[in-house]
Design brief:
The protein is mainly α. 71% of the residues lie in helices and 6% in strands. It is built from 8 helices and 2 strands. A hairpin with a 2-residue loop joins strand 1 and strand 2.
């Protein structure tokens, strides 16, 4: 029974997710518009009401369910399944690029293309005006 209570301790889960995100209590407090002491109290609470949990989840960049279902064991399984250790070197089989970076690159390419197209249209208009005069 003791283990079950420990695993369902929402405050500890919030604390661990915050730590994994590299976020300080002060930063989370700022995001939520509360004091650092209030965050500390939440992290020491076994239960957190749903509305507050939604706010915390949003500030941590996860879902409410993500917090409720969080477990260290699941994290270790993910790490164990995405890293292969061979001769003491870790090889990451996960994604090797940030998809957001690729999206920004595509956006920048479209922007350059649009600027070239706009310049070509301006040149054409200037040439036609020159012909008319």
């Amino acid at each position: 029974m003791q283990t079950k209570i420990k695993n369902n301790h929402i405050g500890r889960k919030i604390s661990r997710i915050r730590e994994l995100r590299g976020m300080k209590q002060e930063t989370l407090a700022e995001e939520l518009g509360i004091s650092q002491q209030a965050v500390s109290n939440i992290e020491n609470s076994e239960k957190v009401d749903d509305v507050k949990l939604e706010e915390i989840a949003k500030a941590l960049g996860v879902t409410k369910e993500g917090i409720e279902n969080f477990s260290e064991e699941a994290i270790l399984n993910i790490i164990g399944n995405t890293y292969h250790v061979d001769n003491s070197s870790a090889v990451n089989y996960g994604c090797t690029f940030n998809p957001l970076d690729k999206l920004i690159d595509a956006y920048e390419e479209n922007k350059k293309l649009y600027e070239r197209l706009l310049q070509a249209e301006k040149d054409k208009v200037a040439y036609l005006e020159k012909l008319i005069k």
